[in-house]
Amino acid sequence: INITATGTITLQSALPTISQDLTINGPGASSLMIDGAGSYQVFNIASGTVSISGLTISNGSAEVGGGIYNSGSLTLTNCTISGNLASGDFIGGGGIFNGGSLTVTNCTISGNSVSAYYGIGGGILNYSGTLTVTNSTISGNSVSAYIGNGGGILNYGGTLTVTNCTIFGNSVSGEYAASGGGIYNYNGTFTVTNSILSANNTGGNCDGSITDGGYNIDDGTTCNFSNSNNSMPSTDPLLDTGLKNNGGPTQTIALLTGSPAIDAIPQGTNGCGTSIATDQRGVNRPQGTGCDIGAYEVIQPVTVASATGKGNITLTPMAGCWLTDVQAVDTPDDPGFSHPYGLVKFDLHCFSFGVSNDVAITFPGDISGMTYRKYGPTPPDFNNPQWYTFTNVAISGNTATLHLQDGALGDDTAVDGVIVDQGGPGQQATSVPTMNEWGMIIFIILAGLGAVYYLRRQGKA
Asked: Going by C-beta distance under 8 Å and a sequence separation of 6 or more, which residues neighbour residue 459?
């Protein structure tokens, strides 16, 4: 099922139980919401292999699994599960209940809650199932109960694997017992890798047995992370204040300048740049010398050595886009121009198609007075590469700021969300006379000198 409608679909009654293979593709989590009206569970998956992507599931309500109840095999991608409620006596899974197999990728699970006498799993309850969460944010979920555990996730006798996730600001409150504000593991297997657990203040970040997969951050000590695994206990990850639209299909929590999570995972380690090639938003990993811990990758400038060996060139994209495949390249013959620093080639990726963005390129020396030249195909057919002068550029000192638009002049490809660029500052070459021209110049000089000599002789006669 491919849903192109946008807006909010509010349920007037419960949807039929899903008991067969099904794929549901929405237009984007920020574009379409399925609203349970505070009265209905949004999806009940009894069996089958089900895939759901590109939508928000909100305001669902049930005793178990307010937003989703799954006992089949479910994959969630680029989704938001928020504001759902599980309430009753012995209940759990405010956002999602999983008793089967559940894979969550590039999703945000936020603001879901459990209210009960005995309540567990404010965001997700994994009850003897298999739950894999990757590149996702678990934030602001809660359990309020007389006996309560697992504000973000509770793993009850199942297998839980968490990789490159940010688990922030979840909580548990109860009169008798309250623990595992972030994650609670009870008689199950729980492995966490490349993840941040922070500010899950009520009940602590973790409770129960945990396998430290390495490169984790805990702003306390409840997760029992070890420096020997390259994890960082008692460390402030320097996160933004909460969920925001930082680009991409779902909201995320950004890393602030100076965060110890930035570039912490060496390339090729724990999936950095290989099995984990992007962040939750789709930004390529790594952006710097290594990958960032958590679901968010900080977009960074890229520096390469110039093709002419005259120093380094640094490229800085503006907000909303990032660079890949940055290369310094030799200059094809550009009639009438010389290129002191060669050309620089890059792919500029943006969160939407057809957008425009600025890229500031800083060269080793002053380029004032030079012309920015580009070599490549041009619209509308994008065939037959050629040299042309690119005028949508501001040059100041040693920096050229290019204003580029997806699919327009300056992009080597059509409207596809990627701007492919190749160019560099050129200075008009000084014309060098040919041999014939040199001969004519010498002849004119000699003739002039002969005329002067003749006139002088005539004057003496």
From this structure: none
Q: Which phi and psi angles does 85 have, rounded to 5°?
A: -135, 135
List beta partners, residue 392.
none
The pair of three-digit structure tokens given for residue 79, joined into one six-digit string: 């989704």
Distance CA 341, CA 426 (A): 9
Residue 172 DSSP code: E
Are 404 and 410 a contacting pair, CB within 8 Å? yes
Site of tokens 């139980």: 17
- The strand ranges marked E within 180-333 are 183-186, 189-193, 196-198, 206-207, 211-212, 217-218, 265-266, 290-291, 302-305, 312-317, 321-329
- Tell me how crowded residue 155 is: count the other CB atoms within 10 A of its CB: 31
Per-residue pLDDT of 96-145, as tens digits, reads 999 999 999 999 999 999 999 899 999 999 999 999 999 999 999 999 99
Residue with tokens 């939750």: 280
Please give the helix or strand (H or E) that residue 443 lies within, else none.
helix 435-460
- Backbone phi and psi for residue 287, each to the nearest 5 degrees, phi listed first: -90, -30
β pairing state of 32-35 and 56-58? parallel
- Give the length of the chain: 461
Q: In degrees, to the nearest 5, what angle opens at C-alpha 73 toward C-alphas 70 and 79?
A: 70
Instruction: State pTM to two decimals.
Output: 0.90
